[in-house]
Design goal:
The protein has about 375 residues and is α/β, with parallel strands linked by helices. The chain has 4 domains: about 60 residues, Up-down Bundle (Chorismate Mutase Domain, subunit A); about 80 residues, Periplasmic binding protein-like II (D-Maltodextrin-Binding Protein, domain 2); about 80 residues, 3-Layer(aba) Sandwich (D-Maltodextrin-Binding Protein, domain 2); about 80 residues, Alpha-Beta Plaits (2-Layer Sandwich), CATH 3.30.70.260. Helix content is about 45%, strand content about 25%. It contains 12 helices and 15 strands. Strands 1, 2, 3, 4, 5 and 11 form a 6-stranded mixed β-sheet that branches. A 5-stranded mixed β-sheet has the order 8-7-9-6-10. It has a 4-stranded antiparallel β-sheet with strand order 13-14-12-15. Helix 4 links the parallel strand 1 and strand 2. Helix 1 packs across helix 3 and helix 11 packs antiparallel against helix 12. The longest helix is centred in the N-terminal third of the chain and has 48 residues. The two termini are about 50 Å apart.
Length: about 375
Amino acid sequence: MKQEKDMEGDWLALENYRKEIDRIDEKIIPLLLKRQDIAASIGKLKSTLGLDIFNPAREIEVIRRLSSANTKNLPREAVRHIFCEIISAARSVQGAFKVAYLGPKATFTHQAAISLFGRSTSFKSADTIEEVFGLVEKGICLHGVVPIENSYEGAVNSTLDLLYKFELKIGAEIFLRIRHHLLSRSKDIRELKQLYSHPMAIAQCRSWINKNLPSIPVKEMESTAYAAEMACEEPGAAAIAGRLSGLNYDLPVLCENIEDHPDNVTRFLVIGKTDSEPTGKDKTSILFSLSHRPGALYRVLKSLADKNINMTRIESRPMKRRNWEYLFFVDLEGHEQEKKLADAITEMEGQCDFMKHLGSYPAGEEPWD
């Protein structure tokens, strides 16, 4: 009898909690509607002032502030996802807004674009990284999302080359943790007869493949999304791809997190035509070329050391127009509007044959999962 009374009390408590949540939800919706109305008014002012709808400095500042109070029942990652979608909805009432990404649908670049811009954004898939740049340059899309480097595979050279070729700015960056899953309609790994994936994903899961699927033929595909599409249509086939691909093709996860390095992260850039405002935690990217003189690179970089400016990355690429001459891509801590960094870049420019300012933008936060 006592046990029945206890259970009756638990059911009553559950019902009361649910009613309380309903009351809270009824308060949240009017606040969100009010927020949308204000966002629409801001959109009209942006149009009058000639401002871009996407303001990464402002958006990242909002998310940083709101996610700073990390609690057990509402972790920072959850706050980031919630407000990414709230801000995305606000952007959608401010005007037409289209973002290009390296496709097809459900690739990791698509996932990065969704993480940054939210699902209320209109996205356009591109077949190549150069097509992403072209769509933005022609104004068909306001911004584009492209991969720039992977923590294990290194730089995406085509992106580096296109930053030199196109007159576009870097407006933001985002880090995405690369989680590879084995996707298949087969119920058991022993039923598999064929494996599909992108060459980079195959390389990043090589040890797992050798251990668990040593005799299964592996075919390289143009993307992990195409691999998922093949696995969806072919009995006994599997794909190595992200969870978004599985959701897109209704393809179950047979094995989770099969990447050889669980801390595998890819950095993506947002490209556009406008500069980003300072946030207090920014990066600046430049590229430059040097003449063949002893100590030329040392003298350029000395300007950074003298002003105590941290260089977070340097990469070289052949110029292609002339043999044995190189472009150097450099990421620096700080915003170009800060006097110390501006003075250092001016000094560097005096030592270079050529320099291009790629933009200052908010530094990426911890990787999105």
